[in-house]
Amino acid sequence: MKILVIQQKMIGDVLTSSILFEALRKEFPEAELHYLIYPHTIPVVENNPHIDRIIPFDTTRSFYSYIREVKNSKYHAVIDVYAIPITALITGLSGAKFRISYEKWYTRPFCTHLFSQNIEAQTPAGASIEKRLRLLSPLSSNFPAEIKPKIYLDKEELTQAEQLLKTAEISSEKPLYMISVLGSSQNKTYPPKYLAELLDCIVEQREAELLFNYIPSQKEDAERLFQLCNPFTKKSIHLQIFGKSLREFISLTSQCDALIGNEGGAVNIAKALNIPTFAIFSPQIPKENWNSYEDGINHTSVHLKDFYPDAFDGYTDEDVAKKASQFYELLKPKLIFANLKNFTEKHP
Keyword annotations for this protein (predicted)? Predict the structure, then answer.
């Protein structure tokens, strides 16, 4: 039996949907399990023992070639987690007995089973995980309600990360925090001037060492944040130590005491590594969709609506997204200080 899972685009989505493979492997040990994802997201599922084959979705390749490949593979089930028109078409033309996705007007003609994405979480895993696992229910009634995403690092990767920190002479006597300095886009990024104030607070209270999560093309943004910090904080920021690849970032994060900053793929990665997280949600992202495993101790987050429940009254979701920068201005650092202090005190 062969099963294909389709999940494209964002790193956090691909990591979260990887739980389906652990569930499928336990229920169907002999099944052949394939994952169709974008190439840049492969590092978060590298070495995953439950995935037999990763199919990179190459945008330079003919879309119809994917339809042919999927159809010729004779899958027993295709699970379209991404649920956009293109993936719905691939699913619909696959010939699979089970064609499963989310309920949308364009998925109806192509799928045998459809599920609503609007659910209320019943477990600490949260809606993002629970709604994915529900997609497996047509195949069996034995799947769990929750599974935590996992990332698999090898010994060499861990050793290299440890050595990198030793070479940089980063003190093991002080807390080491990875800072998620950027969101997945500009309108999902907490204002740098505000984040700098939070970093000043962290270093003043905890005398922590800080690493920045950025890639070479984002160096200018990272340096801008660095310059906004006070001189004392700058001495604790190791700007030259960063993950030059996604896999290297994952390895470095595994060595940290916590990850703090913009909600997104980095937060999901830290959770999968069992690293505590403090996430700042962008105004347009419903916190309840992605605050998985939050317990107020190991994982916590803040959102504008935590402080101003009526902030979006009279606005559509589109309005909030378009005015994200204006809403972010309301989420001033002084609102977050107490929550952040409480978190860092638990993760010294």
Answer: Glycosyltransferase, Transferase
Contact present, 278 and 298 (Cβ < 8 Å): no
**CB of 76 within 8 A of CB of 99?**
no
How far apart, in Å, are the Cα atoms of 182 and each of 138, 218, 224, 291? 39, 9, 12, 18
Report which residue type is found at 287. K
Whole-number pLDDT of residue 187: 86
pLDDT-wise least confident of 3-12, 56-65, 132-141: 56-65
Task: Give the pLDDT of residue 82.
Answer: 96
pLDDT at 134 over 90: yes
- What is the C-alpha separation between 257 and 269, in angstroms, rounded? 14
Q: Which domains does the chain have, with CATH numbers?
A: 2-134 (3.40.50.2000), 155-346 (3.40.50.2000)
Q: Does residue 217 register a pLDDT over 90?
A: no
Write b or e for each residue in 94-119: b if 16 or more Cβ atoms lie within 10 A of its Cβ, otherwise e: bebebbbbbeeeebeebbeebbeeee
> What burial letters (b/e) apply to 135-146, b meaning 16+ CB within 10 Å?
bbebbeeebeeb
pLDDT at 288 over 90: no
